[in-house]
Amino acid sequence: MSNKPNIVILGAGYGGMITAARLQKSTASKDANVTLVNKNDYHYQTTWLHEPAAGTMHHDKTRMDISKVLDLSKINFVQDTVVEIKAEEKKVVLGTMELDYDYLVIGLGAVPETFGIPGVKEHAFGITNVDSVRQIKDHIDYQFATYSQMDEKHDEMLTIVVAGAGFTGVEFVGELTERVPELCKEYDIPREKVKLVSVEAAPTVLPGFDEELVEYAMNLLESRGVEFKINMPIKEVRADGVLLNDDTMLKSNTVVWTTGVRGNPVVENSGFEAMRGRIKVEKDLRAPGYEDIFVIGDCSLIINEETERPFPPTAQIAIQQAYTCANNLKALIEGKKELEVFNPEIKGTVASLGGNEAIGVVGSRKLYGNSASVMKKMIDNRYLYLLGGVPLVMKKGKLKFY
Amino acid sequence: MSNKPNIVILGAGYGGMITAARLQKSTASKDANVTLVNKNDYHYQTTWLHEPAAGTMHHDKTRMDISKVLDLSKINFVQDTVVEIKAEEKKVVLGTMELDYDYLVIGLGAVPETFGIPGVKEHAFGITNVDSVRQIKDHIDYQFATYSQMDEKHDEMLTIVVAGAGFTGVEFVGELTERVPELCKEYDIPREKVKLVSVEAAPTVLPGFDEELVEYAMNLLESRGVEFKINMPIKEVRADGVLLNDDTMLKSNTVVWTTGVRGNPVVENSGFEAMRGRIKVEKDLRAPGYEDIFVIGDCSLIINEETERPFPPTAQIAIQQAYTCANNLKALIEGKKELEVFNPEIKGTVASLGGNEAIGVVGSRKLYGNSASVMKKMIDNRYLYLLGGVPLVMKKGKLKFY
């Protein structure tokens, strides 16, 4: 094509999209061929997926056509799956073709972490992508419909087990408390027949979160009918429910697995050294030993120097990494040697609990109830603003604040 | 309670509801205790069920609270299932109680006819009631959702087999041709992946209907992607599809059984002589040998004297029977011996084919396309008018005519 360098970005999640958008805005998109590779022709909001999973939001609201957000006269887009990265050959193997790169950005996101527990892949649902959450929503609807239709009632059809009470698990169960009364009305089912059970192996819900806020969240969710089983590992997931650590069987036709994530398996399968699928990156976000490969988002691992533990992978960090990554790509193309060091700035964390309820920490302030909920929606809208400006906020934003 | 005679009406379908409504309007509701028994606290439009089954109408539009249509200060309502009629003791056994009657109206409707074909009950869905069609709709949604979510695609998830090309089967497959493009959009599935197959044992679609109109219907539905297998009995329904008479297996996760109906099994189980669950009634609609029992709707059998064959059970006949039944009950209570003779007046038959398409015969006129579709909607609205006047038409009517 030309003798411009090829920048290939793998994955159109938070990191990949913002990297592409930043390059598009800068001279780098003239000085290099920028190619974005993604399985789907759309980008979606991973952090919103608990809502369509519960059925409180249509899945289309969480996604947007890549061609409507990026200018595809400036960024090449290839819709394909990534099979392998051949770093020594500077090549990426896709499902139907190969791509050569001069600079590579790995932003392939995460997959659910099963911890080797048997039956998770076969019998549990994951809040992973648009396809998987659409299936959860329809599965739950179908359980309710079938329950109404059967002469002999099997109450496990109306029991939803959420495995994992981390961020996604708590946000999902919160949405379910909003959705269940609607489902009961739609399917002529008494509310007391429906059980929502949150099962967590750790001794607390939302490990690492402020204790007072966790208390607030648990009280609120319990008052809305959620049953918590804390300190209770799951031994096995079966077709008819979960076997708990105390050898009791919790019968359920709907087990949703939210116990955390690991980096996309392409990373390990391509021979990179990784912890739970995540590459511990250099300060400039490059993979150790590779001057031409940047890793951002859930495939990257960054140590919090204050706690000496890894930062949990979040959209917030992925987005901030994308800014640094785009700046560093531009610098390399311009022949500069000095790269920018990535410094995460954790602005806050807010977990929605369904409806107008949420808990959060912003700076040193604790928030709960409606003010936390408004903050959560503002955070969600701010991302849309970064990506596509006011028009995208108007189109896909959360504009009902109470 | 009183020494007024007890009239008990079993079933709140077309026949039972109109009988109750007519009694309510007449002096009979003062001169007798009128009790209506029904499994649900709502009445629904059996003839509309193909629409919520396909997902082109919400199921709530087909149903209405009995308490909002009847005046329950004049008609007693008991929500219960009917277990057995003890005609010699003039008693009806319900799920939780027994009722004594002086006059009984059997309007218990129909159940699907399986013709003893193995696997129908286990593996096929029925367009039978609100619960069953809600389940069909959600089952189809779930198949589409799961197909999108799976890495390996199983096309039988997108194949819908409609067993029986009588009235309900054709109307249902017609609705599906409307619904499938919406489903494909909702679940990101190419239209050509979806198969709609109508399987009929008889040598023709819509047996007994005008040949020219049948031709019109088949051409239209084929142009919308329906595949017909005529003259093709089904040997067995299995979990993974239907085994056809030529020993080929038609793979499908969704088999909907619409090969006709038989009278409610309570009739035969209570010792009445019946053909396919239907009692051949006297000219005044009473069961042979019982002066105090009327049978209307799908549990009754009436011979068409022109053809010497039974009239197919339709809402039209059930509604007309209800008028005669209510008049005869009033006459008996007033001590009259002469009862009215039932004379069915077949005004016409219209089958919808989805969207604004239909075929029909009204009087000696053949109708097709939009004019048949408008006629069909007028017929549906006329029933609502008979039952609940203009307010019910406004609330539940089909008011978009094109």
Describe this structure in words.
Two copies of one chain form a homodimer. By secondary structure, chain A is of the alpha/beta class. Chain A has two domains: 6-39 and 80-112 and 261-346, FAD/NAD(P)-binding domain, CATH 3.50.50; 120-257, FAD/NAD(P)-binding domain. The first copy, chain A, has eleven helices and 27 strands. Chain A has helices spanning 14-25, 28-31, 50-54, 66-69, 120-123, 130-149, 167-186, 211-223, 265-269, 315-333, 369-396; strands spanning 6-10, 33-38, 42-44, 63-65, 76-79, 82-86, 91-94, 98-100, 103-106, 110-112, 125-126, 159-163, 195-199, 226-229, 234-238, 241-244, 249-251, 254-257, 261-263, 279-280, 293-295, 300-301, 303-304, 309-310, 348-354, 357-362, 365-368. In chain A, the strands form nine sheets. In chain A, strands 5-2-1-9-21 form a five-stranded parallel β-sheet. Chain A has a five-stranded parallel β-sheet with strand order 11-18-12-13-14. In chain A, helix 1 packs parallel to helix 10. Chain A is globular, with a radius of gyration of 22 Å. The termini of chain A are far apart. In chain A, 49% of the residues are buried. The interface between A and B is medium-sized, with 16 and 16 residues. Chains A, B: Its cofactor is FAD. Chains A, B: Pfam families: Pyr_redox_2 (PF07992). Chains A, B: This is FAD-dependent oxidoreductase.
